[in-house]
């Protein structure tokens, strides 16, 4: 597993360190200027969501494989994107309520929500696959062409795989 610290991802530079993944603090410090200079993107596709169960383990798969795992430890929702991969992931209740608006009940388990959050995004250009530590403390794989993204308050940074990014996000006009 590559060990790394990070970057100037926009030009593909990596600095290696003695960790199994780049920490949130290092990501925020090293990427803040690049994120501040990026455009604002909006998620345009509705999502399915349901309440999560404490202790539930969610494995997130994108079209290119396993992205990360998350164990629900506080009140949260499970989001299922309406992409080809239909990737699922956990979002804490407080974040979910800031990022999604209820549309309608789909069935006994799932409801449909419209995204209302916005993000900043930068494209990963380095050739090596590496790992970051996701906001929930687990490793998250990052590959060439993926996007590292943050809400507009720069409170966290996470990966969105290239294919799923273009299926769900667009540059805000």
Spell out the key features of this protein.
173 residues, single chain, alpha+beta
Structure commentary:
With 173 residues, this protein is of the alpha+beta class. The protein has a domain at 42-115. 16% of the residues lie in helices and 39% in strands. The protein is built from three helices and 14 strands. The chain has a five-stranded antiparallel sheet. It has a five-stranded antiparallel sheet with strand order 6-5-2-8-7, covered by helices on one side. Strands 3-4 form a two-stranded antiparallel sheet. It starts with 23 loop residues before the first helix and ends with a strand.
Distance between the termini: 39 Å
Q: Indicate the percent of residues in helices.
A: 10-25%
Task: Tally the beta strands.
Answer: 14
Using only CA atoms, what is the Rg? 16 Å
Strand percentage, roughly?
A: 35-45%
Sheet with most strands: strand arrangement = 13-12-9-1-14
Class inferred from helices and paired strands:
alpha+beta
Query: Which blocks of ≥5 consecutive residues have pLDDT under 50?
Result: 1-18
Helix and strand run: HEEEEEEHEEEEEEEHE
Total of helices:
3
User: Largest sheet, described in full?
Assistant: 5 strands, antiparallel
**Global outline:** globular
């Amino acid at each position: 597993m590559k060990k790394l610290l990070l970057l100037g991802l926009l030009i593909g530079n990596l600095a290696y360190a003695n960790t199994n993944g780049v920490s949130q603090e290092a990501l925020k410090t090293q990427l803040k200027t690049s994120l501040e200079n990026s455009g604002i993107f909006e998620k345009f596709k509705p999502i399915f969501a349901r309440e999560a169960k404490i202790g539930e383990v969610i494995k997130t798969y994108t079209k290119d494989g396993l992205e990360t795992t998350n164990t629900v430890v506080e009140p949260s929702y499970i989001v299922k994107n309406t992409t080809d991969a239909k990737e699922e992931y956990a979002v804490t209740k407080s974040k979910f309520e800031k990022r999604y608006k209820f549309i309608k009940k789909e069935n006994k388990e799932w409801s449909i929500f419209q995204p209302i959050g916005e993000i900043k995004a930068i494209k990963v250009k380095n050739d090596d696959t590496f790992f970051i530590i996701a906001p929930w403390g687990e490793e998250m794989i990052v590959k060439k062409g993926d996007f590292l993204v943050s809400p507009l308050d720069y409170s966290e940074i996470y990966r969105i795989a290239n294919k799923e990014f273009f299926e769900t996000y667009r540059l805000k006009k």
